[in-house]
């Protein structure tokens, strides 16, 4: 079965959706399916560089298409010519591709499945207009899809407002728990680490505030903070300037656009993963961090609370005040023993084996039911 994964950003872009698609495609390749990726030819926030129109990454063909318009709604009609060879088209995210492939379904006649990945509600930008769009255009586009998969319980509750069962199901994202397996420092270090996209909703500036408070309230401990990942609406200059203003640049290491091996090297210097996100569709990075042996320090949002509740490991900061968070972290560092085996065992249920099989069952039902 040839599966076309349509996603607006893919490698070398780094992010949650990109990682999900990469891992799903890898699982499908090993299972005997023939996945390929259709994506855009530029990484957002680095639009000066045009990526190759095609290449093979980890055995999976990747086709990159030019687009016009904004990154919020990149217009790419040429997608139609790249789905001709597919037996099923899997759209990731709710964007132009989702609407356009629905609108043209009578032309291409390919069975469509979509994964929500949080929809387009990750930020408060134009929230009123988004709600109107969601209840009109998104609702209408959904009619063309054979199946729509919510990638979290939060998404499920949201999309049940416009999509009825059994078309809508929930398959929570799988996570690559092998990539960073046991990479954290073997001895407990007073070092916080964040990896992932540097977007404003991730709470990176607040995390720097927490570092400043840690240095102030716990001067004996040599606290460090490592930020690594892909620049987005925050960049290295912005983070450095903010840390300089807070007087903590000497305790902060910032590494932009790292390779997987570089991230593993940085993880080996740390014991804690910190993410103070305002919102997440699912929250892959904390699970990856736990698989590495990093203890999770997380903001009080539903996906993170669910992770901590299910694994019984980690801390949710109910009080968002950086000073309160810093005192809490200092106490944790004094009191807890970090057991890598416990952390790695706790995230086994999030592996891709069950998730990949659930998607494959969906494909079989859809293609078999045509």
Question: Under the CATH scheme, which architecture of the largest domain would be assigned?
Answer: 3-Layer(aba) Sandwich
The geometry reads as globular
Q: How many helices in DSSP terms?
A: 14
CATH structural fold name of the largest domain: Rossmann fold
The total tally of domains equals 2
Describe the structure.
- The chain is an alpha/beta fold.
- It has two domains: 2-174 and 351-368, Rossmann fold (3-Layer(aba) Sandwich); 191-349, Rossmann fold, CATH 3.40.50.
- The chain is 39% helix and 19% strand.
- The protein is built from 14 helices and 14 strands.
- It has helices at residues 16-30, 79-82, 96-103, 105-108, 127-142, 153-159, 204-217, 236-246, 260-267, 285-292, 302-311, 322-335, 340-346, 352-368; strands spanning 2-6, 34-40, 54-57, 60-65, 88-92, 112-115, 147-150, 168-170, 191-198, 224-231, 252-256, 272-275, 295-299, 315-317.
- α8 links the parallel β10 and β11.
- The chain is globular.
Task: Please give a quick description of this structure.
With 370 residues, the protein is α/β, with parallel strands linked by helices.
Spell out the blueprint of helices and strands.
Layout: E1 2-6, H1 16-30, E2 34-40, E3 54-57, E4 60-65, H2 79-82, E5 88-92, H3 96-103, H4 105-108, E6 112-115, H5 127-142, E7 147-150, H6 153-159, E8 168-170, E9 191-198, H7 204-217, E10 224-231, H8 236-246, E11 252-256, H9 260-267, E12 272-275, H10 285-292, E13 295-299, H11 302-311, E14 315-317, H12 322-335, H13 340-346, H14 352-368
Parallel strand pairs: 1-2, 1-5, 2-4, 5-6, 6-7, 7-8, 9-10, 9-12, 10-11, 12-13, 13-14
Antiparallel strand pairs: 3-4
Helix pairs in contact: 1-14, 3-5, 7-8, 7-12
């Amino acid at each position: 079965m040839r599966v076309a994964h349509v996603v607006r950003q893919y490698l070398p872009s780094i992010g949650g959706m990109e990682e999900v698609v990469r891992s799903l495609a890898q699982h499908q390749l090993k299972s005997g399916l023939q996945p390929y990726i259709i994506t855009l030819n530029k990484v957002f926030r680095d639009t000066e560089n045009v990526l190759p129109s095609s290449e093979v990454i980890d055995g999976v063909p990747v086709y990159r298409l030019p687009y016009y318009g904004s990154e919020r709604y990149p217009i790419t009609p040429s997608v139609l010519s790249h789905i001709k060879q597919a037996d099923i088209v899997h759209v990731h995210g709710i964007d132009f591709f989702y609407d356009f492939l629905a609108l043209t379904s009578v032309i291409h006649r390919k069975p469509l499945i979509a994964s929500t990945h949080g929809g387009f509600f990750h930020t408060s930008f134009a929230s009123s207009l988004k709600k109107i769009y969601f209840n009109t255009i998104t609702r209408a586009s959904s009619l063309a899809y054979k199946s729509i998969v919510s990638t979290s319980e939060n998404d499920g509750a949201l999309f049940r407002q416009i999509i009825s069962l059994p078309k809508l199901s929930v398959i929570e994202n799988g996570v690559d728990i092998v990539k960073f397996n046991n990479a954290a420092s073997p001895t407990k270090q007073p070092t916080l680490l964040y990896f992932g996209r540097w977007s404003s909703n991730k709470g990176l500036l607040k995390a720097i505030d927490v570092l400043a408070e840690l240095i102030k309230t716990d001067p004996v401990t040599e606290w460090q903070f490592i930020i690594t990942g892909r620049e987005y609406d925050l960049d290295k200059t912005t983070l450095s300037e903010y840390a300089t203003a807070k007087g903590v640049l000497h305790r902060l290491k910032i590494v932009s656009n790292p390779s997987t091996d570089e991230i593993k090297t940085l993880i080996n210097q740390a014991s804690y993963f910190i993410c103070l996100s305002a919102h997440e569709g699912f929250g892959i990075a904390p699970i990856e961090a736990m698989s590495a042996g990093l203890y999770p320090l997380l903001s009080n949002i539903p996906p993170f609370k669910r992770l901590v509740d299910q694994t019984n490991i980690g801390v949710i900061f109910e009080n968002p005040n950086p000073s309160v968070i810093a005192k809490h972290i200092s106490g944790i560092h004094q009191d807890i023993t970090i057991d890598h085996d416990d952390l790695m065992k706790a995230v086994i249920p999030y592996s891709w084996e069950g998730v990949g099989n659930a998607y494959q069952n969906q494909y079989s039902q859809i293609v078999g039911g045509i």
